[in-house]
Structures are given as structure tokens and as C-alpha cells.
UniProtKB/TrEMBL annotation:
Record domain RapZ C-terminal: where: 165-284
List of residues binding ATP: G8, L9, S10, G11, A12, G13, K14, S15
Gene3D superfamilies linked: P-loop containing nucleotide triphosphate hydrolases
Residue ranges annotated for the RapZ-like N-terminal domain, each copy included: 1-155
Gene label: rapZ
Domain of life: Bacteria
Keyword vocabulary terms for this entry: ATP-binding, GTP-binding, Nucleotide-binding
Species of the source: Clostridium saudiense
Residues that, per the record, bind GTP: D59, I60, R61, G62
InterPro entries named in the record: P-loop_NTPase, RapZ-like, RapZ-like_N, RapZ_C
Name of this chain's protein: RNase adapter RapZ
Pfam families recorded: PapZ_C, RapZ-like_N
């Protein structure tokens, strides 16, 4: 049985995530008191395989009952139930905007400012976030994007190498480090095409910039070392049952160096038949904010 506990910040997308799981055939229960988790799991186990995919949404709406979550998780482990925790996150700015757009108050704001409720909730969920197996930051996601992410992690798995989902994510340090990163690499030591007039208008997706970045001796050494490290790390992550690996590659603006290098790492892992995805978080941000001509 695949047993998933869905939690996270209010407004981060738990409802949409649950809908996606339902579409994938999961038996979903919303706002189950944590004290009932073990009994519910046992009932599912006694269903003779009729219920083999379960998702429970548990969050601060449970009030005082939410404090029982960790004891219930210990009880699951004692009974040898395997479970995963999915945590939905988003930035404070995005959460405030979502609450205002829907004209809703935050469940912990007490009728006051939404940001106050968000800060309280983030503190209450800090420990469960640290324990989570999969963290999805929905700050820049549309509904379709979140559904795609859910399918990536919880869709049908038929091959052993599909058990670990790897995302190579390029980003710009001036826009912040992705909060869901597992590994972060800074490639700002590589010569920057931004300062070469004929290369500045392009991105790391374009051949001129890609060739410039990849021909640098620093780049060649870096790729050789990171590929060796990932060849060691990934099988060990798989052995330990890790399901999600976010490898973030950052440069200043997230448009040139990080994009070219992220693509190269992605191609290397793809050629080795890993379940790998590529995402360029800030490639458009730098066009609008860094180069007014484009």
C-alpha cells in the first residue's frame, strides 16, 4: 500500500494536490484527526488489497488534534506501516496574494492580518516539514503545473529507476535560492556571457551562449566533478528510499551560465535512464528585469 500524508501551509495548494491524487486512483480523506491515522491504516490493510493507494490531508485545521500527529507517526512505524509525507509550501508573498484574491481569512489570523497567521502556521509546521519526504514549492505554479508535479511523484511506476524523481533546476541568486532544493551549486565562478555584448541577448538555451559556457575549462572541470558525485549519490539515495531530489544550479540572474550547465547535467542523467526533469526558474525574469531591450 502506498500511504501518503498531505500537509503544508494554508493556500499552498493542498486541495488541488488532493484532486490530482484522486484522479490517480488514491483514496483520499480530508482533515482526518491524527489520532485516527493508525486505525484508518489498519482498516485499509485489512481490505485485501482493495485499497492500495491512500492519501490523508492533515493540517492545522485539526486544531489541538494536530499536536497528536507525531505520536501517530510513531505508532505507524511501530506497526511497520510505510508512509510518505508530502509538504506543500509557498512564499509568504504568494500566500498573502492568494488569500486576498479569494477574500478569505487565514485560519490562524484570528481576524487580523493574513501574514500574522502565515507566520504562526509556518512555525507550527516547521517540524513536520523537516520530516517530509517530498516538498513542493507552489509559488510559481499554475494548477496544470501542480498536477504535472503530482503525476511525476505519485503516478504509475513500472521501472525501478523511476522510483527517484530528479529535477535539475536553474535559478538566479538575485531572485533567491529555491526553497525545495536538496543540493545547491553556485556556478558564478564561470566567466559570464552577460558581459559579452553579442551574447548578452541570448540565454543558455541558445547555441552561442551554450558553446561559450561549456568550452570554459572551469565548466569542464565542474561538470566532471559533479557527474562523478551524482553517480555516487543517486544510487545511495535510491537505496535509502528517497523519492525526490532537487538539484539547483545557480548563477547571478539564472539566464546564461546556470541554464547551460543545468541542461548539460540533465542530458547526462537522461542518457543514463534516470527519471529526470529540467526546469529553468528565472530564465524569463532576467529578460524583463535585467535587460530592458528584450
Amino acid at each position: 500500500m502506498r500511504f501518503i500524508i498531505v500537509t503544508g501551509l494554508s493556500g499552498a495548494g493542498k486541495s488541488e494536490a488532493t484532486k490530482s491524487l484522486e484522479d490517480m486512483g488514491y483514496f483520499c480523506v480530508d482533515n482526518l484527526p491524527p489520532t485516527l491515522i493508525t486505525k484508518f491504516a489498519e482498516a485499509c490493510r485489512q481490505s485485501d488489497g482493495k485499497i492500495d493507494k491512500v492519501a490523508l490531508v492533515i493540517d492545522i485545521r485539526g486544531g489541538v488534534f494536530f499536536n497528536d500527529l507525531f505520536q501517530s507517526l510513531k505508532d505507524l512505524e511501530k506497526e511497520q506501516f510505510k508512509y510518505e509525507i508530502l509538504f506543500l509550501d509557498a512564499t509568504d508573498e504568494v500566500l498573502v496574494k492568494r488569500f486576498k484574491e479569494k477574500r478569505r481569512s487565514h485560519p490562524l489570523s484570528g481576524g487580523g492580518r493574513v501574514i500574522t497567521g502565515i507566520e504562526l502556521e509556518r512555525e507550527k509546521l516547521r517540524e513536520v516539514k523537516d520530516k517530509s519526504d517530498i516538498i513542493i514549492d507552489t509559488s510559481k505554479y499554475k494548477i496544470g503545473d501542480l498536477r504535472e508535479e503530482m503525476t511525476k511523484y505519485f503516478g504509475d511506476e513500472t521501472l525501478p529507476e523511476k522510483q527517484l524523481s530528479i529535477t535539475i533546476l536553474s535559478f538566479g541568486f538575485k531572485y533567491g535560492i529555491p526553497v525545495d532544493s536538496d543540493l545547491v551549486f553556485d556556478v558564478r565562478f564561470i566567466p559570464n556571457p552577460f558581459y559579452i555584448p553579442e551574447l548578452k541577448p541570448f540565454s543558455g538555451l541558445d547555441t552561442p551562449v551554450r558553446d561559450y559556457v561549456l568550452k570554459q575549462e572551469e565548466t569542464k572541470s565542474f561538470l566532471e566533478k559533479i557527474n562523478d558525485m551524482l553517480e555516487f549519490l543517486i544510487p545511495n539515495y535510491q537505496k535509502e528510499g528517497k523519492r525526490q531530489l532537487i538539484i539547483s544550479i545557480g548563477c547571478t540572474g539564472g539566464r546564461h551560465r546556470s541554464v547551460a550547465i543545468a541542461n548539460q547535467i540533465y542530458e547526462n542523467l537522461y542518457d543514463k535512464n534516470y527519471n529526470v526533469y529540467i526546469e529553468h526558474r528565472d530564465i524569463k525574469e532576467d529578460v524583463h528585469k535585467g535587460d530592458k531591450k528584450l
